[in-house]
Amino acid sequence: MSDNRARVLSQALSIDAWHDPFRVDGSTSGVHVEISFSEGRLGGDDAEFPFTFKLALKRALLTIKVERPLSLERRSVARSKPTADAERTMILAYREAAKANLAAKGRITPATIHLAISGEAKAEEEVTSEERVKVVQTIPAIVVSPKPVDRQSYSWDMVPGHSETLQGQPWDPVDEPRLRVSVDGTIPKIDPVISIVVSCALEDIEISDLVPKRSTLNDKVRNVIYNDISEKAAIQYLKRILVNADLETGKLDDRFSDLIVADLLALPE
Q: Which helix or strand (DSSP H or E) is residue 42 part of?
């Protein structure tokens, strides 16, 4: 794992990780992870593969594991949730606005005002002055949910907030470290390991727009290839990429099989 970026499916996922200097004075060190998702385009630079296709992730799990003598400071773990902003709206003085529409229909009453405003007839309900609270929930592009693992590990589940696949960055890598660690005792000569793993299930990989490279194939042949073997071919190509990167592929015939799509160490800053 000498090159942090050599062991990752970089077309759909870019990742880097580092940590602040370790200290023995009781202070903690932040572990930072920069991760960015995009739609990858694969197969184009491989002369032996007969297709090109697009690939994106619909879900991913980031796991950080620290090695002793490091201790994970659980209170420092990044935890976030969609924010709810309360917007207070005052609905006042509808009487004058309703008069013009109701004058020809008879006496102005609280019930007829309500009918003019809401379009609903509620005979006994009076609307002379009302205060309503509207709650607006802000959903980020990527929703991140923390998941405790054990005393030395923590995970974060990432899903799209308002799109089909993961796109962009889920957090600020500098201002929002994933967690902080402290050193128990003295710092060893060789830095203790902080490993970063990104995984997903096979069903969380979206493969689309698979096109044969041979433009001479007619539409009928193209459709047969696409419907019968295209996705299987793309999955096998993906498996080859992961194997060449020494990443675990699991059983690619099982849609719930876990795949490791990134595996790296957090290096000293």
A: strand 40-42
| Cis peptide upstream of residue 82 (ω within 30 degrees of 0) | no
Q: Give one word for 243, left, alpha or beta, with left for phi > 0 and alpha for psi -120 to 50.
A: alpha
Q: Please give the Cα distance from 166 to 178 (Å, whole number).
A: 19
pTM more than 0.85: no
**Residue that has been written with the tokens 């299930």 in this structure:** 201
Structure tokens at 225: 């290839």
* Side-chain half-sphere exposure of 125, counting CA atoms within 13 A: 13
In tens digits, the chain (269 residues) has pLDDT values of 444 444 457 778 999 999 999 887 878 999 999 999 999 887 777 777 777 788 899 999 999 999 988 999 999 999 876 555 555 444 434 445 555 555 545 555 555 555 555 555 443 344 444 445 555 667 788 999 999 999 899 999 999 988 899 999 999 999 999 999 998 877 777 788 999 999 988 889 888 887 777 654 555 555 555 555 667 777 777 777 777 666 666 666 666 677 888 899 999 98
Please tell me the distance from the alpha carbon of residue 175 to that of residue 235, in angstroms, as a whole number. Answer: 37
C-alpha 162/C-alpha 122 separation (Å) is 37
Helices 110-118 and 94-102, axial angle in degrees (round to 10): 90
Residue with structure tokens 């089909």? 164
CA angle 105, 109, 114 (to 5 degrees): 90
Encode burial over 61-75: b for 16+ CB neighbours within 10 A, e otherwise.
bbbbbbeebbebbee
How far is the C-alpha of 236 from the C-alpha of 244, rounded, in Å? 12
